[in-house]
User: Which sequence fits this backbone?
């Protein structure tokens, strides 16, 4: 049976499905970047809210800006924008839920005017984003908006036919202002420290290139709440699609699989109203900083620790690493000795319990989170998740070996694109060539990789760090069995 609106009532009883009237929904939210995570997180919370109360103003219109999103557009359209979420519990138990909160989908690269008009529509109250860390067009040297990006220059010249999300947002906000409509909230759901503040900084920089008066209006009228978002959502596999077919005879061409845990902590600053997401477990706070720091420095950095060391070791998935006691102990020590001391108190959270749950979540054998996904775009991730922890430990004179080995291993990984056995590793990174060039020069200058300033800043000028790092590099290049160095660090 194909997944679509007509067949909803015939789904097997074990599948939860929307019981609200989807025809009554209007899209108060426009979401850019409908990938796995949006569908397991914001759209999932919103579906629960629609299920439990009358929130019919808060349907979601998905938006894809890039040609690569056409597949999502056509699959969702064929399925009346319905899709299944398979929640995989650590004990192997699964729950399947069909989500109904997405009610439309528009493709920016095919019809930019339709996207701009939809964002500018009075019914749109929030434009939310999961466009990945790389989607914010940050100049890695300065931390400002990258004005040299040809797409940004194109968007300044062609306001009605933009390519970057910032071109779309600016064009839509301009229309709203002209029409006397209130601004929408721009809500980032990407894994970035102060994601709302960064979005604001980038949007204002872009808008100023186009129209400084409009930029002033945006600055005073648009809210950009910071948020911490969490739910491990690996790439959908063929096995997920086959599971629905064999278990329920349900044909869903792009379901999502994820863990049961989920968390969303949001600053309660919205320009134009918001759903009562607190009724379905979203936490609204005045300041999200301690929550996001805890999550990025423990969960995301922990993923990178396992991802990079595990990839070189020859492992494929996070749970495979967690079946190795050496990796578990290493991770736990990294959390306890290097991260916890640099975190601020987090209201209402017991850090020990949080770390214990992380170890349990990472070990969930049903998730099969690929290390290749974790290592994607490491050059955008490590400067946010891991390198600040090293810097803070340097300035307080504390140990940093666990994190330093990850940097040394990342150099090896960027240089060889292979694990310790010589098996090729697929590297996907916007700075892949620069990283490889810097890593390859290690044979002439042991510090060449960490001298790559767009990622490491001034790290290579710190003598304590470079002494530790150089020793690790020397040993890793002589013997890429990273587990030997991990063992020694644990025993320190
Ligand atoms: P995905 O690959 O399934 O989807 C990414 C979406 O972003 C796609 O629609 C893609 O077209 C769009 N996109 C990418 N670059 C863009 C750009 N420059 N401009 C506009 N759109 C762009 O990935 P996902 O798993 O949904 O993750 C997306 C983001 O969500 C992550 O980068 C992360 O910041 C955040 N997140 C993911 C998880 C997770 O476990 N997957 C957990 C927490 C947060």
Assistant:
């Amino acid at each position: 049976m194909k997944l679509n609106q007509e067949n909803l009532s015939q789904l097997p009883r074990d599948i939860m499905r929307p019981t609200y009237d989807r025809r009554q929904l209007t899209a108060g939210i426009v979401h850019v970047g409908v990938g796995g995570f949006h569908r397991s997180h914001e759209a999932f919370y919103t579906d629960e809210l629609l299920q439990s109360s009358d929130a019919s103003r808060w349907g979601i219109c998905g938006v894809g800006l890039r040609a690569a999103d056409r597949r999502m557009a056509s699959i969702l359209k064929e399925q009346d924008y319905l899709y299944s979420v398979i929640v995989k519990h650590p004990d192997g138990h699964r729950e399947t839920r069909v989500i109904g909160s997405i009610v439309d989908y528009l493709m920016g690269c095919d019809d930019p005017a339709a996207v701009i008009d939809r964002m500018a529509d009075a019914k749109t109250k929030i434009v939310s984003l999961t466009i990945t860390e790389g989607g914010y067009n940050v100049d890695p040297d300065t931390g400002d908006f990258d004005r040299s990006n040809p797409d940004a220059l194109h968007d300044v010249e062609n306001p009605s036919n933009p390519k970057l999300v910032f071109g779309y947002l600016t064009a839509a906000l301009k229309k709203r202002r002209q029409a006397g409509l209130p601004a929408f909230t721009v809500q980032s759901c990407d894994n970035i420290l102060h994601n709302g503040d960064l979005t604001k900084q980038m949007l204002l920089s872009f808008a100023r290139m186009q129209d400084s008066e409009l930029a002033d209006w945006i600055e005073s009228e648009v809210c950009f709440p910071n948020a911490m978002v969490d739910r491990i959502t690996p790439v959908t596999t063929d096995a997920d699609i086959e599971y629905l077919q064999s278990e329920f005879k349900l044909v869903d061409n792009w379901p999502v699989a994820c863990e049961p845990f989920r968390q969303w902590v949001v600053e309660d600053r919205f320009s134009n109203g918001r759903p009562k997401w607190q009724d379905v477990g979203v936490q609204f706070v005045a300041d999200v900083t301690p929550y996001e720091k805890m999550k990025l420095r423990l969960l995301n950095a922990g993923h990178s620790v396992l991802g990079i060391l595990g990839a070189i070791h020859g492992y494929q998935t996070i749970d495979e690493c967690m079946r190795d006691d050496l990796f578990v102990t290493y991770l736990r020590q990294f959390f306890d000795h290097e991260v916890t001391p640099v975190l601020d108190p987090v209201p209402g959270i017991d850090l020990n319990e949080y770390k214990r749950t992380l170890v349990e979540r990472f070990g969930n054998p049903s998730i099969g989170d690929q290390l290749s996904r974790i290592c994607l775009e490491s050059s955008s991730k490590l400067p946010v998740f891991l390198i600040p922890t090293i810097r803070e430990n340097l300035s307080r004179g504390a140990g940093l070996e666990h994190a330093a080995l990850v940097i040394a291993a990342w150099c090896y990984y960027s240089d060889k694109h292979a694990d310790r056995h010589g098996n090729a590793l697929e590297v996907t990174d916007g700075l892949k060539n620069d990283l490889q060039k810097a890593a390859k020069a290690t044979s002439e200058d042991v510090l060449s990789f960490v001298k790559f300033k767009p990622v490491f800043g001034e790290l290579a000028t710190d003598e304590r760090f470079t002494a530790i790092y150089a020793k690790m590099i020397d040993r890793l290049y002589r013997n890429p069995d990273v587990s030997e160095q991990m063992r020694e660090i644990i025993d320190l």
Remarks:
- The two ends are 58 Å apart (CA to CA).
- The longest helix spans residues 289-313.
- The chain has two domains: 8-285, 289-491.
- The pocket of nicotinamide-adenine-dinucleotide is lined by residues 33-38, 64-66, 68-69, 130-135, 165, 190-191, 229-233 (CB under 6 Å).
